[in-house]
Amino acid sequence: MDQDDKIAKKGRNKIKIAPIANSKARSTTFSKRRFGLFKKAYELSDLTRSHVKILVITDKGCLYEYASPCFESKLKSVKKVVPMMTNERILKVSQTLNGSGL
Predict the structure, then answer these.
(1) 9 phi and psi, to 5 degrees?
(2) What is the SS3 assignment for the chain?
(3) Beta-carbon-side half-sphere exposure of residue 93 (alpha carbons within 13 Å)
(4) Which of 22, 97, 98, 102 shows its CA 20 to 30 Å from the CA of 91?
(5) Domain coordinates of the chain in residue numbers?
(6) For the segment 40-51, what is each residue's pLDDT rounded down to a tens digit?
(7) Can you give the pLDDT at residue 45?
(8) How far apart (Å, rounded) are the C-alpha atoms in residues 68 and 50?
(9) CATH of region 19-76, choose from 3.40.1810.10, 3.90.930.60, 3.40.50.11540, 3.30.450.20
């Protein structure tokens, strides 16, 4: 194991982010992470009184959606739109913040 593989935070090991080849493992991971993502969106909305919407489309074309209460009505009152976060922007910001990336 190299040094990057041994990095631990709060008792959890850092895993390398790479596509999962096994379809059953990929499906299980997707379900767990989707729930975690939606839970974090709920927490963000609840803690900050913000309105959150997440759309996830799987490789099989299934759409999963989370929206905080009253999201659609609040969308009509948006005053400023900031650029969408893309994979490239997330990696760039992450590298800037902690010097290493994801």
Answers:
(1) -130, 125
(2) CCHHHHCEECCEECCCCCCCCCHHHHHHHHHHHHHHHHHHHHHHHHHHCCCCEEEEECCCCCEEEEECCCHHHHHCCCCCCCCCCCHHHHHHHHHHHHCCCC
(3) 6
(4) 22
(5) 19-76
(6) 999 999 999 999
(7) 94
(8) 8
(9) 3.40.1810.10
